[in-house]
Amino acid sequence: MKSLFTVLFLLIIQFFSAQDEEISYANGIFNFEENKTQKIFTDWTRVRQSPKVDAQILDSLPTNQQVLIIKQDETILKLGERRANWYKIFYQKDDKTSEGYIWGGNLCVGYRNKNGYDFLFGLTKTINKKDKQYPEIIINQNIAAVKVVEGNTLIDEVSFDTGSAESLSYGTFTIESNHKLNNVELTLKAMVSGEACGIASYDQYILFKNKKLVALPQLMNVGDADVYYHTEEFIFPNDKGGIPNAFIFKMEEMEKDDKDREKKKRASKTYIWDGNSYKLK
């Protein structure tokens, strides 16, 4: 049943991807509130006179530039799997105040400041890739990234998958402790998720050490009502005085057979952190 569910799940994604041109909505993660400050994610984002890709370019803004959202325009632009409104913005640059329009897909999904560093989370592009188990199926895969900036200087950046457009209903970006891992200053967690059954959510943990970002294996969670679910998580045992310099991957999966009987599967594996990198125990 799991194989059948997987095939159906991938076919659903492919079906919705094929309908992209007929869909006129923006991904929820690019829904930004008016009269709120945001930050530029895509370096040298173009500021235009009106909300169109062929409108006059007034300026370009670097990564980490702060802007004020004045108004969300109804016009939606789709690039790859990213759909976002245009926004009228106000900003200050080189002691000069200006305004114009930018595409929402170039803004940060989330940003945080800690210990003098700015951490930025956003989406960068869409790629086409073959499914590992079913190579005849082509998946539109979004790529996200987290950047760390000190002042106006980009210090480091890591990229990772974030699924298809259906997984971009909302996102979060948080800072956690270092989980008592040697040489780690703090832990970042980026998440994107969909709203419907059968649509996966993705959790990406990133360790920050010595001005470097280290991405941990990605976690995926998906469920279909009470028929099927697949959950993945990390446990940091040293938080409670357990195994030092380690984190544990845990997976649980449940599916119901034709007679409505539950069949569960669990797995775990331990990773050891040596202060610079991780490996399986």
TrEMBL record:
Residue stretches making up the SH3b domain: 33-111
Entry keyword annotation includes Signal: yes
Keywords: Signal
Signal peptide feature range: 1-18
Organism in which the protein naturally occurs: Chryseobacterium glaciei
Protein name in the entry: SH3b domain-containing protein
Superkingdom classification of source: Bacteria
